[in-house]
Amino acid sequence: MSSQIIPGPGGTGPGAASPHAPSAANSIRMVRLLGTVSLMCGLLIVVTNLATKDRIQSNQETITRESVAELLPGISKQVTYGVEPSGELKVLTGATGEGKKFFAGYDGSGKLVGVVIEAGERGYADVISALYSYSPATQTIIGFKVVDMRETPGLGDRIKSDIPFLANFKNLDAKVENGKEVHNITTVKHGTKKNAWEIDAISGATISSRAVGRMLHKSVEDVTPVILKNLDRIERGN
Question: pTM above 0.90?
């Protein structure tokens, strides 16, 4: 009488193969499929980026030029200057891009109205990016606009729209001598401003207000000496 070995429920008997164990061929096919999908996704991202890059840059340039016109009312011409590491200037064809730059604005007769300078500083939540207008004739800041921030809604983000706070930048002293501010631009406690180079903070948004003071202090010492040094050229617009 012959005996027969019957595999148990787990399929562990002699000659039994697990129906759930993937074969080597299946594994290879799966790896190839995943690789193909990843490659297609990567190519799609690259193609989309290339297709939209010019449009995004064009939109950014339009926004920047509109902001410059807002900060320098009445201008009819803009020239973008890039600042070389050596401190020399070069005229740029676009309003966006990497590197230090500023924008000169001219009225209908070609007279320099002022310049708009980019600035940025870490605030409460993230970096605050801004533009401010500067008058080389009086060495004062005459306008300020936040262009990007992540500050707390209802508190820190008031630096963008709070009318009394923005009034700080109608005639903010930014004089420099020998590459240094005569009086450092600084933010003071709300209601305690006494001097033309001080920024009256927003109550409840001190951190964001101080970030604005720091960014202007750093930018004024960094960029305005270059502007004053090359003022004759800037006034000619070349």
Answer: no
